[in-house]
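Working notes for the structural subgroup meeting. M.R. asked for a predicted model of this chain before we commit to crystallization trials. I am recording the input and output together here so anyone reviewing the notebook later can reproduce the run.

Input as submitted:
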Amino acid sequence: MSRAAEGPEGAAAGGRPGPAVPAGRGRPRSAAADSAIIEAVLRLIEEGASIGELSMEGIARAAGVGKATVYRRWSGKSALLLDVMRSLDAPSPPPAGLSVRDDLVALLEFLRRRGLAKRSSALMRTLVSHVRAQPELWAEYHDTVVRARRDALLGVLRRGVASGEIRADRDLETLADLFVGPMLARALLQEWKELPEGLPADIVDTVLEGVRPGGNGARGGLNSPTSGPG
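Returned structure, recorded in C-alpha cell form:
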C-alpha cells in the first residue's frame, strides 16, 4: 500500500503532487515511474537508510529505473525528498460553507489529525526535519502546501466578517494565528501534550467568543484599536 494512503489523513492524499522539475519535450512522463521512485525512497528510509545515505543512484536501483529517469524528474535529492514529503501530506478539505464555526472546527480538526499522524510516523518526522533544515526547500513547501491551508482559513474568516459573525475591526491575519496557534503549539512544540478530539471546537469557541460583535471582545482594552486615553 502506498504510504500516502496510510495513517489518519492518508485518504485525502489520493493524488501525488506534481513533479519538482517540469517535464520537457519528448515522451510523456510515466506516472508509474514517478510512483515507483517515490515509493522506493519511502521504503529505503523505512528500512533504516538515513537521509545522508540516500543517493540518486541508489534510489534508481531500488525503484528499478535508470538514473537518467530519476534526474529527468528531479534536479537532485533534495527536490525529490520535497515531493516525497508532499506525497505524505494530505490536502486540507475545502470548507463546506454552511457554518463559519463548523468550517473553522473542521480546519483545526485537520491540523489535529495531521499532528497525530506526524507523532506516530518516524518517516514523516525524518522528512520534515530534512526539509526544514533547508530554507529554500522549506519555503517551497510552505508556498505549495501550507499557504493553501492558510488561504482556506482566511476565506472562512472573511465570510464570518461579511455575515456579521466576526467583528470587522480585527486583523484577520492575527485572528488566523489565534485559531491555529494553540493547535500547532501542541502538535509541533509540545509533543507531550494530548490532542483530544474536542480540542478544535474548544479553541474555535473560545476565540469566537472574543471576536463576536457585541461580545467581550468588543469592550476594548489594551489591544483594541478604539482604546485610548479617552
